[in-house]
Amino acid sequence: MATRNETGITTRDVVMIALFAAIIVTLGLVPPVTLGVVPVPITLQTLGVMLAGAALGPVRGALACALVALLTAIGLPVLAGGRGGIGVFLGATGGYVVGWILGALVSGLLVKHWVLRLRSRWAQVGAYFAACVVGGILAVYLVGIPWLSVAGGLSLGQALVGGLVFVPGDLVKAAITALVVHGVRRAYPMPVK
């Protein structure tokens, strides 16, 4: 039985937040791919962000991403390529890291208030995919692209066009997340918080 503290967060919640933060960090061990179009590499860490939001819900998912951002800020090399430190937030990728928190929150809200109400298996898988696209892609880009524009010295249009290179890979990550989270939830139903 999970014990609840004054904030309403249980021991299980803390463990799940730490576990998904560790998953995001572990996905950063895969070397980043630099395209040269924009100064932001392709990484697998956004897959972890989508998984956190869709599996844990808005609060725990956002807290898992915030934990990774905090570890980054204090200098631990938790981002792809072994990057860390406050300088990451001042650079071109900083907006994407901050956007992860919003992305997990939005994905989690969509799962909590929409996806889990659906009864058809394939409708749920499609809805998980849509939740990951809206939260894990659109919400992250909403923060990341303007930040890239300012920090990278690009016009907003250039940053937007450069950011579009990530869309195909992120759509694949959203599909993987939809299938994985749907399967996990069927085998191990857990509350979405």
Give an overview in words:
- This protein is mainly α.
- The protein has a single domain (about 10-185), classed as Arp2/3 complex 21 kDa subunit ARPC3 (Orthogonal Bundle).
- Helices cover about 65% and strands about 0% of the residues.
- The protein has eight helices and no strands.
- The chain has helices spanning about 10-25, 45-55, 60-75, 85-90, 95-115, 120-150, 155-165, 165-185.
- Helix 6 (about 120-150) packs across helix 8.
- The longest helix has about 30 residues, at about 120-150.
- The protein is globular and about 45 Å long.
- The mean pLDDT is about 95.
Main β-sheet description: none
CATH secondary-structure class: Mainly Alpha
The arrangement of helices and strands along the chain is HHHHHHHH
| Beta-strand proportion | under 5%
**Average pLDDT value?**
93
- Tell me the CATH topology: Arp2/3 complex 21 kDa subunit ARPC3
Secondary-structure arrangement, i.e. CATH architecture: Orthogonal Bundle
- Tally of individual helices: 8
The number of E-state strands comes to 0
> What is the CA-atom radius of gyration, in angstroms?
16 Å
Helicity, in percent?
A: 55-70%
- Total domain units: 1
**Span from first to last CA?**
17 Å
Shape by Cα distribution: globular
- pLDDT < 50 runs, ≥5 residues: none
Secondary structure category: mainly alpha
